[in-house]
């Protein structure tokens, strides 16, 4: 199985790309082995919908052996990239809310022959294929990487913002040691058959057209998926044409009527690699199964009993919550929990915050406004500034451009006995809370000291003074529902410490021997910045240059003498810089990502 996933970026509603192919490189040498080829026309994949979810792209039979790298080929035609701004991006974001960036303003870094970008991903955990064995390869696009999409204003462009898209630093392997815990995005498809024993539904995978049309249409692929009915817990089956809901433990009752119809399927993996359907929606119209608002929660109005989900067009879709609305929390590793609702009605809205990733279903796709029949909470994500960290809990304070969405929440850690995946380096099972730094996803801190280590790492701050003031440690946490440590509530399963984006500023002193100082507008103080030059953990440094109307985004490897020399020569006083780092207890910034600009004014970056 080959899939892709991502981490989220708040400022965008759609980052649409065309993945043309994926191949594997044998350790023993020889030609790459193709494992995925896009249908024609190649569909767009909106990476924003894959926040910690996976989209199955293909199932392929490959020769036995060990594979050490994957090559992902992405279309590099600017017309094959869709960038649509969020309906409510961060203050200062360089695109208007809900706007789609024009093709002429998009520049693809590293395009080969002007039409494709091949992304070579070294697998730090090789893929070993043996006879009669299922393997899962998940390739993650890290949308939150500061070098992914950089907005800049070239002097010759009369103030027009250009957007440089650089896929090279953001594609990496996501480790999967247990496919039963893999959270899959809902699948769309056209049903081709029901098995003779009525246990299995087979469909050809469909992709929605981007940008969405009205009514929405589909691109049908040759990728065939088989899903079994849940013979133990039952599969919830929604007939959107008849407006009925039934629970079935096999597909016998629909075998004579469903072939040729469209479906949307929420599924989970079994240990043997088979898929089991948790919920299935069907209609004779693709538009009916597609009209099911999917995206990140934009607003929650607990008084009015409504929530707004942002769609791919950068538009907030209002949903009314009534007494019959059921809430689910996707837990594929636990079949019973995955199948049963965790709450009902407007009262449960108190447990939702902006930033959660959800897939809603509506009572009537033709009604206005929509009334939600069910809400699949796929990801419960909290983020913001971290304060008050102890060995028991910590507090997030999150401020948005729309103040009514702000929240302050204290999260306990999950129970020390709660299963929590595997160590990406060793494969050893992990129990209890775990955390890591943004740029080092394989260096996971877990075990009995994880919480106390986390508390020590998150109690720092830096002070720019003036109206900027303190910059605190930031993080992003994914939570579990009803853990033993937090009955009928959320508890932090894992946290990623994100580099805090410091305001765009100027180097106050030249770089020398691993450090420099930075000042920012409206700040009264300069702050020391430490740059790590150790191979394997070095600060990620990028030079963004505009010379002779040519944009270049160049990585600078500061773990080498040549990279050190480049940075020393280029990063002098008054050089425009953008620093992303972790504030330390001594008032310095531990820099994880450093971008410096030559040749133009920087607009903003995500």
Descriptive account of the structure:
This protein has 606 residues and is mainly beta. It folds into five domains: 177 residues; 104 residues, no CATH class; 86 residues, Beta Barrel (OB fold (Dihydrolipoamide Acetyltransferase, E2P)); 117 residues, no CATH class; 101 residues, no CATH class. The protein contains four helices and 47 strands. The strands form ten sheets. It has a seven-stranded mixed beta sheet with strand order 30-29-28-37-38-33-34, covered by helices on one side. A hairpin with a 7-residue loop joins strand 41 and strand 42. The two termini are 31 Å apart. The C terminus is likely disordered.
Annotate the secondary structure layout.
Elements lengths: L1 E6 L4 E6 L1 E8 L6 E5 L7 E2 L8 E4 L6 E11 L6 E4 L20 E3 L7 E14 L7 E6 L6 E5 L8 E4 L5 E4 L12 E8 L5 E9 L9 E12 L5 E5 L4 E5 L13 E8 L5 E9 L2 H5 L3 E8 L4 E5 L5 E14 L5 H5 L3 E2 L12 E6 L7 E10 L1 E7 L5 E6 L8 E6 L6 E4 L6 E3 L2 E4 L7 E2 L3 H8 L3 E3 L6 E3 L1 E8 L8 E9 L1 E2 L3 E3 L7 E5 L7 E5 L8 E8 L2 E7 L4 H10 L5 E8 L5 E10 L2 E5 L1
Parallel strand pairs: 1-11, 9-13, 17-21, 18-21, 24-27, 33-38, 42-46, 43-46
Antiparallel strand pairs: 1-6, 2-5, 2-8, 3-4, 3-7, 7-10, 11-14, 12-13, 12-47, 15-16, 15-20, 16-17, 18-19, 20-21, 22-23, 22-26, 23-24, 24-25, 26-27, 28-29, 28-37, 29-30, 31-32, 33-34, 35-36, 37-38, 39-45, 40-41, 40-45, 41-42, 43-44, 45-46
């Amino acid at each position: 199985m080959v899939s892709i996933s991502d981490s989220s970026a708040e400022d965008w509603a759609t980052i649409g790309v065309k993945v043309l192919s994926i191949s594997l490189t044998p350790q023993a040498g020889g030609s790459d082995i193709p494992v995925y080829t896009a249908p024609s026309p190649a569909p767009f994949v909106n990476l924003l919908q894959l926040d910690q979810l996976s989209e199955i792209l293909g199932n392929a039979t490959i020769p036995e052996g060990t594979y050490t790298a994957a090559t992902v080929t992405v279309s590099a035609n600017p017309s094959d990239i869709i960038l649509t701004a969020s309906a409510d991006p961060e203050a200062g974001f360089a695109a208007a809310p809900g706007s789609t960036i024009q093709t002429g303003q998009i520049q693809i870094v590293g395009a080969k022959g002007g039409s494709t970008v091949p992304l070579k991903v070294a697998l730090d955990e090789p893929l070993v294929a043996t006879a009669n064995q299922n393997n899962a390869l998940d390739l993650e696009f890290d949308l939150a990487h500061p070098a992914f999409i950089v907005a800049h204003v070239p002097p010759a462009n009369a103030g027009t913002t250009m957007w440089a898209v650089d896929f090279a630093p953001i594609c990496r392997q996501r480790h999967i040691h247990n496919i039963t815990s893999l959270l899959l995005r809902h699948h769309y498809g056209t049903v081709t058959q029901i098995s003779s024993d009525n246990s299995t539904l087979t469909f050809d995978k469909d992709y929605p057209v981007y940008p969405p049309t009205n009514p929405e249409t589909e691109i049908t692929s040759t990728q065939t998926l088989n899903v079994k009915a849940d013979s133990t817990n039952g599969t919830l089956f929604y007939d959107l044409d008849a407006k009925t809901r039934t629970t079935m433990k096999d597909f016998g009752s629909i075998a004579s009527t469903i072939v040729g119809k469209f479906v949307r399927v929420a599924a989970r993996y079994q240990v043997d690699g088979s898929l089991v359907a948790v919920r299935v929606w069907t209609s004779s119209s693709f538009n009916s199964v597609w009209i099911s608002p999917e995206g990140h929660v934009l607003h929650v109005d607990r008084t009015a009993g409504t929530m707004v989900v942002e769609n791919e067009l950068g538009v907030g879709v209002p949903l009314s919550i009534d007494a019959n609305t059921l809430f689910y929390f996707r837990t594929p590793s636990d079949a019973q929990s995955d199948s049963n609702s965790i709450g009902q009605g407007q009262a449960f809205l108190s447990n939702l915050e902006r930033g959660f990733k959800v897939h809603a279903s509506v009572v009537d796709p033709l009604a206005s406004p929509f009334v939600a029949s069910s809400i699949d909470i796929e990801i419960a994500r909290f983020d913001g500034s971290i304060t008050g960290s102890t060995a028991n809990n910590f507090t997030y304070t999150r401020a948005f451009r729309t103040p009514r969405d702000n929240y302050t929440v204290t999260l306990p850690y999950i129970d020390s006995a709660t299963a929590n995946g595997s160590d990406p380096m060793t494969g050893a099972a992990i129990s209890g809370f775990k955390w890591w730094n943004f740029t080092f996803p394989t260096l996971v801190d877990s075990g009995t000291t994880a919480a106390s280590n986390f508390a020590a790492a998150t109690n720092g701050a830096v002070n720019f003074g003036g109206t900027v003031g303190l910059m605190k440690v930031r993080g992003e946490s994914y939570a579990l529902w009803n853990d033993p440590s937090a009955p009928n509530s959320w508890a932090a399963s894992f946290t990623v410490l994100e580099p805090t984006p410091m305001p765009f500023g100027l180097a106050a002193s030249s770089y020398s021997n691993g450090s420099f100082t930075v000042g920012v507008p409206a700040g009264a103080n300069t702050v020391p910045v430490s740059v790590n030059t150790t191979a394997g953990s070095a600060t990620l440094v990028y030079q963004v240059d505009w010379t002779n109307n040519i944009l270049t985004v160049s990585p600078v490897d500061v773990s080498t003498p040549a990279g050190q020399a480049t940075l020393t020569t280029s990063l002098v006083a008054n050089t425009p810089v953008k620093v992303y780092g972790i504030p330390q207890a001594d008032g310095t910034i531990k820099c994880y990502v450093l971008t410096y600009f030559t040749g133009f004014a920087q607009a903003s970056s995500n």
